[in-house]
Amino acid sequence: MIAGHGQWRGAAGRLRAERTRIVLVVAEDRPETLAALNAIRDAYRAAFAQEAVGLVLSPACASFR
After folding, report:
1. Global pTM?
2. d(CA 43, CA 49)
3. What is the tens place of the pLDDT at every residue in 2-57?
4. Domain residue spans in the chain?
5. Average model confidence (pLDDT) for the chain?
6. d(Cα 54, Cα 24) in Å, to the nearest integer?
7. Interstrand relation of 2-9 and 15-22 (parallel, antiparallel or unpaired)
8. CA-to-CA distance for 35 and 29, rounded, in angstroms?
């Protein structure tokens, strides 16, 4: 997890800002992976009354030794 600061325009049109956490997930590009990530986002949004929970998908080459 990476600490960050988020800012967005809420549904009421007001600018909102708050501390945030960025979670970096390295995973295979499969439909099941996207479905699991979306389920996590939906659960987090409901549990913490968030208007939105972001997701960025970026292709990468990773290697672990």
Report:
1. 0.77
2. 10
3. 999 988 888 889 998 989 889 999 999 999 999 999 999 999 999 999 888 999 99
4. 2-47
5. 92
6. 12
7. antiparallel
8. 11
